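Listing S7. Sequence submitted for prediction.
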Amino acid sequence: MGDTLVKAICRGVRVYAAVGTDLVNEAVKRHDCYPVAAAALGRTMLGALLLAANLKNKEAITVNFRGDGPLKNITADAVPEGFVRGFVADPHVELPLNDRGKLDVGRAVGSGLVTVTRFTGLRKPMRGSSEIVTGEIAEDLTNYLYVSEQTPSSIGLGVLVNKDCSVKAAGGFMIQPMPDADEEVIARLEANLQGVRPVTAMIAEGKGPRQIIEEIMAGFEMEFLTETELAFRCQCSKERLEDVLLNLNREDMLSLIEDGEAEVCCHFCGAKYHFAREELEQLLKLADAVK
């Protein structure tokens, strides 16, 4: 079963579900994440994909958690075409399990702000934020949508991490009643959500996004719309990182030239790009010419 996101609607309710085990595994390997960082980063990336599903093509979204916990900063970028990338400031955080015997993502994230930035083609991106309420990611994104965007929602996210730090199951869902949803539908939906199983349990059984929606929305007749393949993909390139070097001050560029080379690492995917002395000298000439 590959990574996919499925959209469905029913009586004024839209439901999205995603399985992203492979893409979260890819991110965990690239960043060498320990279990609690793997869970936090994976949930953030999946949350970003679910939020991006409401965007139009060529638009994008960035989700950022900046807390006072040891993970410090978690960021994920996603596009509606199904691509996502992300990083966590400290992937090597180790914490004891919480009182439920689970990875203590809430403590690892801590208190602070969750910020969501939507790039919709306008001159300025649309940015909103809200306080981190639990640090468990899903609850914080649900709260963000209600507080900052006045959109009642229910988000569930899960990442099941093996002892060797590989990811056994990762996925999530988002349910949003539309303004025309009646009270009976809302009541039945709330009853369903009270008994919903962890999404990782469903995925570990082999269920895909469609089956996850069918289980969550038991008793509803769903209309399934689209299915989108998901993948970890970074937009970095050597040309883009040249822009980073061009924005360095002259003293720093001269120092790199004196060293004879430079290696620039993309913090989103871990890819490393090498710049020889001659390339650095050409970049310095270009920077001097435009000043």
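Caption to Listing S7: primary sequence and predicted structure tokens for the chain studied. The two ends are 53 Å apart (CA to CA). The mean pLDDT is 93.
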